[in-house]
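Slide 14.
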Amino acid sequence: MTTPFHDRTEVRDSPFTGLDLCAAAGFELPAGIRRPVFDDDVWSFTDVIGMARYISPNARVLDFSAITDPRWRRLAKEYIAALLLPGHEAVAVLPQARRFPLSVLTCRARLVGLTRFLSWLAARGISRLHEVTQHECDAYLLHAQYPSGGHDGAAAAAKTGMLAAQTMLELGMYSELFTDDRYQPGFRAFKGRAANKIAGYAPSRQNSTPPVPQDVLRPLLAAALYVANTIGPLVAGLEAQRRERQAEIERITTAHRVDRRRMKAVLRRHAAEGRPLQRVGDNEVKRRLQEGWSSEDPLLTVSFSALAQEIGFVQIAGGWWDELRAELKATAAMVGVSWPWGRSAAEIARADDGGLVAWTEPLSGRGVIGLANVASTAALLVIAIVSGMRFSELAELNVGCRSREEVRPGLVRHRLASKVVKGKPVGGLPDEWVVVAEAHDAAGIAELLAPDTALGAPLFGRFAFASRYESFKAWVNGPAGQRLGLEPIPDGVVTMRMLRRTLAIELAYRPGGLLAAKIALKHVSVATTEGYAARPGGAQAKLLAEVSEQEQDRNLELLLEEWRNYQDGVMPAGPGARELVEFFDGVDGQLAEYAKSAPKTAATDQELRNLLTRRAKVLHLGTGNYCWFSDPSRALCLKLAGTPTADKPLIGMCDSARCPQATHHPRHRPVWADAVEKNTVFLGNLGASRKTERRRLEVEVARAARVVAEIDAATTTTDDEEGAA
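Slide 15: predicted structure.
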């Protein structure tokens, strides 16, 4: 007779006993570092070479000690080892085991989920997994979703419940692997249903991350560009001086009572140069007041250690300044007391009115460090906003990541080298981002401000974006930023995901890129888009897909707008107008048929959208027209370029006045009217000898005027007919 698993008394070795986890997972460690072994209660992957920088040291440690039952602790180790090492011989034979390794970060989350489940079982007197039935699984699912007993927050509860169900399901998937405990033979939690269906979790196909509001993005980007470009180099220079001075101070070894004669010479030099004495920090002032100093004492804020350092001494003998009090008072009265850094700051143009102002007021050493952090954050924001790089990708930027390539005279391509971490093996995969010049220059400023400026050192490393952003906003909205004429940044949450989402929407909803117009530079959106599209399936594939999705949403909204214009009698113009009107007639007929078949049901907006969706997919935006690219063989731009089989129109070669797939609408009228006005002015300024140029401009004016007339006629035809009737 077969002995039930829970009645066995023999002690079996785990298939992972004594296993070097890093060697099995292919992780590299520096020489001399203790390697985590399966039998350890704490697995530390902190020193693994190439581990993504954004993962904090704490998140690289898997601690099993919170599981007090030794048998369950070994079960937890076997479970996590199986997730980390799917290729292990004991795991590969399991029919339901995962076939791809999970990251250390994900394994840590799985361990947290398992620890909670086992703790919940223990609190209810259940000491073995073979005692678990579907009743316990249902009860724990409810507990995980609504730990306080409430029934609100359904979306969050569904997601939390999915993670809890996943833990219970995977304990069954790896049941054959466990040495000391497992579910009853034949028991399948929730009958093997998918975790998301168990918890009722249905992720939305729409990206739920909101974009950064325009009233926040505009002053944020303007401030970041101004700080990075205008005062960034100045801050970097001041920070370099501070670091050099700090290194000199640290090299001082003389430590005894200050020489009065030499100190008097220092004071005379201050007086002769008109150089203020250095001020001490507020904490030191507070300490002196507590020791009995008078708040009216002229020496209350004077740094005596700074004076001692000027003659190469480390101050250790207190009270020497009492012997020189008269000389110190006289010097302080003559030159004043001030912070040491930025006393003679150069003047720069304010951000608002262009008026000249000193780029900084005098700063303490800590003030310089704080301002360097502000400038570094500005550089980080510029790169994040205009490149769309993820948090993990920004963390992998190194000093020396910049490169430039001259494509042709006057056209330079800028790149930033980093790593793609998401969904990649430990260490990530090297990749490059084609970026605009502002992002490239911002990375250069960040290199100067990095704590370690050696080649290959982290540019930003692992950073807390929320705190850095709040500090930057506080500086911009505070006295320093307002003195420089920066527009205050409104309150509101800004995250890395929101910045990435914003860029995708900006690129999708504006031809040529609204972000390019915001920073008023040429070819910005073209270069950025090239960075996303240069490697299909590479680092930016997901963002490119999101851009494409936003383009379709935008196209559908534009088509809906033209449908409503059609209903109001405002017709399209241009060579493709008749075809578009026929399409709208067909849609109108389909809606009418629907009304006949269901007379008590009105056609909804969603049904209209369904009818328009296919047409929206062929819409491409030109500067002064819509291109309905339904048939490449009819596209005039492809005929002119000699590429009739291309799958996209060449908008830059569009001649919408002649292309049979182009239409003009009221929103395009200002473009053509402006062309008429400007070319008419040019014609008036041409000399009599410029006959060829005159003929060309006359043709351009006539064509633009014809387009304007057609748009006006299509817009006013219905109104005229109604008036005549």
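Speaker note: The first helix runs from residue 21 to 25.
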